[in-house]
Amino acid sequence: MYDGGKIIAGLIIFLALVTFPFYNNIGKANAKPEPKTDTPEILKWEQEYGRKECIESKEFMRPNHMQMLNGWRDSVVRNGDRIYVNSTGKSFNMSLQNTCMHCHSNKKDFCDKCHNYMAVVPYCWDCHIAPKEKKT
Amino acid sequence: MSINRRQFLKIAGISTVFGLGGASVFNAISRGSLEAAQVLTDPQALKAKRWGMVIDMSKFETEEDIKRVKDICHKIHNVPDFGDDKMHEIKWIWPETFEHAFPGEHDEYFPEELKEQPFMVLCNHCAQPACVRVCPTKATFKRADGIVMMDMHRCIGCRFCMAACPFGARSFNWKDPRPYIKEEDLTFPTRTKGVVEKCTFCYERLAIGKAPACVEESKGGIIYGDLEDPKSEIREILRTKYTIRRKPGLGTQPSIYYVIDGKEKIGGKENV
Q: Which of A36, B119, B160, B173 is disulfide-compatible with B134, CB 3.0–4.6 A?
C-alpha cells in the first residue's frame, strides 16, 4: 500500500470526527421536555374544580392528540359537526384556535417543547393563529 | 406429515373463521376512547337543504354600500389586503360592473341606471359547481346544505377550480397572506401560501346560529334562506320579484339572485 501510514491515520481521524457526537454524549441524557401547564386559564380551572383537566386525560392526550385534531378537522370542515363530547360527557367546541389554545395559551412552552424535542414540525400554525405571547 | 385435500380445506376453513372472528373481536376491544367519544352538531346551528341569497340592488346603489359589506367579511375572515396589486388580490366579496357580472345579450331597453350600477358579487354556491367537479383532492366540495366549501387542509394549489369557475370567485394565495392582514381576527384561521380561497357562506357563523356576516351588515339588502323550502322568505321573494342570476346559461345553477325591480322595498323583518 502506497502511503499506508497517511491513509490509516486519515481514516482514524475521519472515524474519530464522525463518531464524535456519539461518544461525546454517551451517558448524558438530554433534558426531557417539560411542557408547562400554568397558563392563567388552566390555573383558574384548577382553582375552580380542584384539578387540572384537559378535554381528555393526560395519558390519552399525549399519544393521541394528533389523531384527535385530525378527526376534529374532518368533522368541523367536512361534516359541520363542531361539538365534541368527551368520555365523561362534557361537551367542547372543536376548535384548535378557540378551544385548545384558549387554555394552552403558551404555545412556546407547551406545544413547541415536545415538538422541538421530537423534531416534528406540524404545519398547523401556517394558517391557525397562535396565541399572542411575549417574546422570550 | 402429509395431509390430503380434504384435511387442508378443513384447516383452512376453520382458521379463516377464527381469523375473521378474531379480527372483529379485536377491533371491538381495541376501539378505545377515541371512537367512544361522540361528535354532535351544535343544536343552535342553522340548517337548510340549499342555502341561497337574494341581493336587493336597490340597497346597493354605490360602491360604498358594497365596500361596507365587503370590509366586514374580509375582516372577520382574515382576508389579506394587497391594495392596488391586482396580481395578488384576494377577494371573497367584490364590486363588479354590470357587463362583467352579466355578460351576453341583454334587452335593449334594460334600465340604463342598472347597467351603470356596481354589482356586489361573491361565490355563487352553485347547485352544480364546476369547481367541485374538477378538484382533484376534494378540497372544494359541496356540503349537504348546498354550501360550496373549501377544506384548506387538502388544497394543493393546482388552481383547476379557478380555471373552472365561470364567475372568478376564487383567489389564489401567491404570497404568504399574513403580512397583508391589517388586524388578525384571532377566532378564525388565516390561509397559507399556495391555497385557493373564496366565500364560504359564513359556515362558521351558521354553525352557531348566526346569519352570514354580509347579510347582517347589509341592513336588509341581502336576504338569505333555504331555496328548497317553498315557505321560506327567500322563495317568497323569488316568486314575487324579478330576479336575475349570473350566467344562468352555463347550467351551474347559482344560488345567488339579484332583485332588480325598482326601488320598492323587499323582504320582511330584516328591513330597516
A: B160
